[in-house]
Amino acid sequence: MSKTVSPLEGIRVIDMTSLGMGPLAAQILGDNGADVIKLESPDGDIFRHVLPQRSAGMSHAFIQFNRNKRSVALDLKTAEGKEAFLKLLKTADVLLSNMRPAAMARLGLTVEALREIKPDLIYCACYGYSERGPYAGRPAADDTIQAMSGLTGLQQMATGALQYVPSVVADKAVGQAVANAILAAIIHRLRTGEGQAVEVPMFETMVSFVMPEHVSGRTFVPPIGEAGYARIITAQRRPFRTKDGYLCVMPYTTPQWLRFLRLIGRHDLADDPDVADMGGRSRRFEELYAVISDAMPQRTTDEWIADLVEHDILFGKVNSPEDLMQDPHLKAVDMFPEVDHPTEGRLRMLGFPVNFSGTPQRLRHLPPTIGQHTRELLRELGYDDAAIDAMQARRALVAA
């Protein structure tokens, strides 16, 4: 049997990012076979230091965003650290950074300087706001981008509560976009030999994520309604109370609606031509949500699940994060595999959600300690152990 080659095998990515967005993007590339070099300062990625953690510098969050990478810790503010970085850069295909352009410029790492060193380099910069607009250079984080992108405002419209989604959803959504952008640039380079600069700003990317359904009536010029998709932001769109708990129930297609209405004895609505029409249901969504809400307390959650499965109607249990750890489907697909880490002991990682028939993703590198691979990679660049030890003594790097 021939050896399976991962799609990005032979592509080297320098991951010069911290926290969630950039590390997730680089992890996706690593999962698909890229040689991802996580370039850290001697203090390490900020996410290394949040709680809980079993040992210093190896937090739960860092572990889940940084598999399939090797760590090199260099101080780019020192001449020796920067020199080592530039040697490493010449071996790379992609440089990913979430530093704002002004900070990169202070290190002498402008787009022009980077492309002069490595003409076919793909340089992907991901940060808060595009350099093309008046917000250029502002700092940003998940919370601020949730607010700026309209996501927090939608929460208030739907629930009355002005609050963030309790997930770093901006970091993760934009991280996916960063990975997609880099993959597109890699394909272009494979076809033409050309590198390029790629900018993935969080604000604009999250607006493109949040707004497709919420441009709504303003899709048309002149507008035929306000921005905001009414069915999505109604307070009626919520899990419904059953006799003993809660359940998300969502008949969607016409056959599903008709089956559900007959299941609950509402033959009057099932026989209504307006309800059998998607446009009619769109006009009457508040009424139909109320019909579901009134019906649900008549049966237990398990009784509803049995009926909804039998009638092939959309539903979902309301799971907590703890519930997911025990979910039988997630157990069957090994969504939370356990591994042994050389410094952290037994760990529960996230599995790979995407299935490839020919190039399956796999765990090649456990999340690294700070500078775990500095010595290994600098040896590849021609440094001997004496030189590496001397640089470490002068605090230009951290090497295991």
User: On the 0-100 scale, what is the average pLDDT?
Assistant: 95
Report helical residue fraction: 40-55%
Q: What would the CATH topology of the largest domain be? A: Rossmann fold
Instruction: Point out poorly predicted stretches.
Output: none
User: Helical stretch count?
Assistant: 19
Distance between the termini: 37 Å
Quantity of strands, as a count? 12
Main sheet properties: 7 strands, mixed
CATH-assigned homologous superfamily of the largest domain: Crotonobetainyl-coa:carnitine coa-transferase, domain 1
Radius of gyration: 25 Å
CATH class of the largest domain: Alpha Beta
- Architecture (CATH level 2) name of the largest domain: 3-Layer(aba) Sandwich
**Which descriptor suits the 3D outline?**
elongated
Helix/strand structural class: alpha/beta
Q: Strand content of the residues, in percent?
A: 5-15%
Task: Give the strand order, joined by hyphens, for the main sheet.
Answer: 6-5-4-1-2-3-12
Number of domains: 2
Question: What would you say this structure looks like, in words?
Answer:
By secondary structure, the protein is α/β, with parallel strands linked by helices. It folds into 2 domains: 12-210 and 332-398, Crotonobetainyl-coa:carnitine coa-transferase, domain 1 (Rossmann fold), CATH 3.40.50.10540; 240-317, formyl-coa transferase, domain 3 (2-Layer Sandwich). It contains 19 helices and 12 strands. The protein has helices at residues 21-31, 60-65, 79-89, 101-106, 111-117, 142-148, 151-159, 169-192, 202-210, 230-233, 254-263, 267-270, 278-283, 285-295, 301-310, 321-326, 328-332, 374-380, 385-393; strands spanning 12-16, 35-40, 70-74, 94-97, 122-127, 196-201, 240-241, 246-249, 315-317, 338-341, 345-348, 397-398. It has a 7-stranded mixed β-sheet with strand order 6-5-4-1-2-3-12, with helices on both faces. It has a 3-stranded antiparallel β-sheet with strand order 7-8-9, covered by helices on one side. Helix 1 packs across helix 8 (169-192) and helix 8 packs across helix 9 (202-210). The radius of gyration is 25 Å and the shape is elongated. 33% of the residues are buried. The model has no long low-confidence stretch (mean pLDDT 95).
